[in-house]
Amino acid sequence: MMRHYLAYSTLAVKEGVAFKINLFTSLFGGVIRLILLVSVWKAIYIGKESMAGYSEEEILFYIVIATAMSAGGMLSAGSILGERNFTGDIIVDLIRPVSIPWCYFFISLGRFYLRFWIKVIPTLIFGLILVGYVPFIDGGRIAVFVWLFLGGAFLHFWLELCIMSFTFKTKSSFGLGILWTAATSFLAGLVVPIAYYPPALHNLILWTPFPSMVYTPISVLMGNATASSGLGALYQDFFNLPVNAALLIEQISWILLTLPLALRLYRWNEKGVEAQGG
Q1: Residue 38: pLDDT above 80?
Q2: How does pLDDT run across 194-237, given as a tens digit for each residue?
Q3: Containing H/E element for 50?
Q4: CB neighbours of 229 closer than 8 A, spacing ≥ 6?
Q5: Which residue of 17, 20, 152, 170 is 20 to 30 Å from 58, comparing CA positions?
Q6: Closest CA to 230 of 206, 247, 213, 254
Q7: Do 197 and 213 contact (CB within 8 A), yes or no?
Q8: What is the DSSP track for 16-31?
Q9: Cβ proximity of 256 and 155 under 8 Å
Q10: Quick one: average pLDDT of 3-9?
Q11: How far is CA 166 from the centre of its chain?
Q12: Which of 202, 224, 26 minimizes the C-alpha distance to 135?
């Protein structure tokens, strides 16, 4: 059965290669976005040594990593579900003897693989050259970051599926897509680290799964991760764990909670399917 799902990843890679011009044009757009963000943050830091615990070099490094991750490093359910529902291809998918959410997951996995090499790595290299700052990072922090990065990509897919499965009800993914993008940008720390938010809001957001997708992995990589609130703080206090271990378990907990919820919501919304293209 697994090879059937892996076939979806292979097809997604071949499709991406066939339309690689789209990847390169979006890479260019991502580079322009990065240049604008770096310029804005440099302007904000004029006359300031640090803000919210970040020096200018540190916040620019954070922005580079976050932009590289958002350039294609997270698995996405919304674009696939929206496309298939709008064109009517969802009807063909539904008659196949496979789990549709897992099919879309493996399609997204194939796209993730392609975007990682064509978009994420070039954006990262360009960004580090642009800001001219790379802190010392030991191998242990890199290993934890890679795990959290991949786990965050996995978590992103199933969280997005929770929201985007309502496409069956709304008949369009456009509004839901805007809502989801706004929520993740704000709550996951894609543009502004959540450490910059007021303390009450900061602590509240830490009780959601969103920081585990972007903010937590980057904080671990930079060596300034803390578990001041949320499940991570509970695990750290109750089990007397190191902060990175507590944050890893926190992310795993959110995955275990989100995955069955996403599958259940999908099945419930799927009953109201009315494909616009069929």
Answers
A1: yes
A2: 999 999 999 999 999 999 999 999 999 999 888 888 999 999 99
A3: strand 50-51
A4: 202, 203, 206, 207
A5: 152
A6: 206
A7: no
A8: HHHTHHHHHHHHHHHH
A9: no
A10: 80
A11: 20
A12: 224
**Residue 51: beta bridge partners?**
54
pLDDT tens figures, 138-148 = 999 999 999 99
Structure token digits, residue 200:
């009450």
116: Cβ–Cβ under 8 A, 6 or more apart, which residues?
72, 73
**Spatial distance between the Cα atoms of 83 and 72, rounded to a whole number of angstroms:** 18
Q: Residues in the chain, how many?
A: 278
H or E segment to which residue 108 belongs: helix 100-115
Q: Is the pLDDT assigned to residue 248 strictly greater than 80?
A: yes
CA dist 95 and 104 (Å) reads: 15
The values of phi and psi at residue 51, to 5°, are: -145, 135
